[in-house]
Design brief:
Blueprint (H helix, E strand, L loop, with lengths): L1 H7 L13 H5 L5 H8 L6 H12 E3 L14 E3 L2 E3 L3 E3 L12 H12 L3 E3 L7 H8 L4 E5 L5 H13 L4 E5 L9 H5 L4 H6 L8 H5 L9 H11 L10 H6 L5 E6 L2 H9 L4 E4 L13 H12 L4 E5 L5 H9 L4 E4 L1 H32 L13 E3 L1
Parallel strand pairs: 4-11, 5-6, 6-7, 7-8, 8-9, 9-10, 10-11
Antiparallel strand pairs: 1-12, 2-3
The structure holds ligand FNR.
Organism: Streptomyces albiaxialis
InterPro entries: Aldolase_TIM, Alpha-hydoxy_acid_DH_FMN, FMN-dep_DH, FMN_HAD, FMN_hydac_DH_AS, LMO_FMN
Family: Belongs to the FMN-dependent alpha-hydroxy acid dehydrogenase family.
Length: about 375
């Protein structure tokens, strides 16, 4: 309604409301390295494309005369009440996209009451982002360092700064083969992280002769091996539990056996995700991974979903297949690239309005009404 009313005054939205088209127009707002990093994927891009194709293979079956005049998009996720089943995925180094980076994201998310998940690879410190986020709901995403002291220090800071839920990303213990970045020798982490997490962390800084600003090379050389490698294992999860008294969610689960293992290990939720096709080229589409995982653990834990969400219909399809809520990645980064905080808000509000309308026209009053029977599958 707002958009049409503005139209009467000759005003149009700041940029497209078609979130599937945002990537193409974001190219004009980003240098080629940053664009390649955000839009890029692992290898040939097969999994990135598969993420979208999997949505296309499933279609909603709309119901008629079912009175969906009044809708309620509210839900609870891990015990917290949310206005809609949509969260902002952790996206690192956002200052390569816009100078305000995560601060703009924190403000836009708070203004809509949507949880943002702050990446360990943030361009601003977690305290700065918490301040920008104010009373907004915020979660913290951990790239799990192999130095326990640094890990405990980061977790303690995140708890103190009001991050409620810990999302531990498992699929990125080293960066994938990403031709867009390799071809441009583009190192987003060095360009975007600057002095932020973990460089700002006292335990990390204590391991350096000079502060990271004075000796960035030394900081990077210490940082890279600390955040890569396979020495974190299932039996190390109790360490995280010891240092985090809120819900813990594992992100990057795709195999039902890993989902079972996660639940057996006592975590509170999982995110079915293939990192937006950015890690294992040739991996299955995230939406195809969802039903087997829901079947394996859906009764015992909360299953969240990401990778490929671009429209309201996509959100509904993931929820129909058993996801409790979804996370959105690239679209909001593109909104940030277009117009900072306002651009990001435009993207999120467009997605939520599309979700609400599509829910209504599909004949449902709440996303929780949808089941796999509401989908047609090619
Ligand atoms: C990511 N993602 C990500 N995930 C994470 O756990 N920590 C991180 O720091 C990042 N950084 C990051 C940067 C960029 C530029 C992108 C595009 C993605 C992955 C992200 O959380 C999410 O899994 C995907 O973005 C979801 O796929 P879509 O929505 O981008 O298709």
């Amino acid at each position: 309604n707002e958009i049409y009313l503005h139209g009467l005054e000759g005003r149009v939205p700041p940029f497209t409301t078609d979130l599937t088209a945002l990537g193409a127009s974001a190219r004009d707002h980003l240098d080629s390295g940053a664009f390649g990093y955000v839009a890029g994927a692992a290898g040939s891009g097969a999994t990135h494309r598969a993420n979208r194709e999997a949505f296309d293979r499933r279609r909603l079956i709309p119901r008629m005369l079912s009175d969906a005049t009044e809708r309620d998009l509210r839900t609870t996720v891990l015990g917290a009440a949310l206005p809609t089943p949509v969260l902002l995925a952790p996206v690192g180094v956002q200052s390569i996209v816009h100078p305000d980076g995560e601060l703009a994201t924190a403000r836009a998310a708070a203004s809509l009451g949507l949880p943002m998940v702050l990446s360990t690879a943030s361009s601003y410190t977690l305290e700065q982002v918490a301040e920008a986020n104010g009373e907004g709901p915020r979660w913290f995403q951990l790239y799990w360092p192999n130095d326990d002291e640094v890990c405990a220090s980061i977790l303690g800071r995140a708890r103190a700064a009001g991050y409620t839920t810990l999302v531990v990303t498992l699929d990125t213990w080293t960066l994938a083969w990403r031709p867009q970045d390799l071809d441009q020798s583009y190192l987003p982490f060095i360009r975007g992280v600057g002095t932020a997490i973990p460089f700002s962390d006292p335990a990390f800084r204590a391991g350096l002769a000079k502060p990271p600003e004075e000796d960035l090379d030394a900081a990077v050389l210490r940082w890279v091996p600390m955040f890569t490698g396979t020495d974190r294992s299932w039996d190390r999860l109790p360490f995280l539990r010891e240092h985090w008294d809120g819900p813990i969610v594992l992100k990057g689960i795709q195999h039902p056996d890993d989902a079972r293992r996660a639940v057996d290990a006592g975590v509170d939720g999982i995110v079915v995700s293939n990192h937006g096709g950015r890690q294992v080229d040739g991996a299955l589409a995230s939406l195809d991974a969802l039903p087997p995982v829901v079947e394996a653990v859906g009764a015992r834990t909360e299953v969240l979903f990401d990778s490929g969400i671009r429209t309201g219909a996509d959100v509904l399809k993931a929820l129909a297949l058993g996801a409790r809520a979804v996370l959105v990645g690239r679209p909001f980064a593109y909104g940030l690239a277009h117009a900072g905080e306002d651009g990001l808000r435009h993207v999120l509000r467009s997605l939520l309005a599309d979700l609400d309308l599509t829910l209504a026209l599909s004949g449902h009053r709440s996303p929780s009404e949808l089941t796999p029977d509401d989908l047609w599958h090619r």
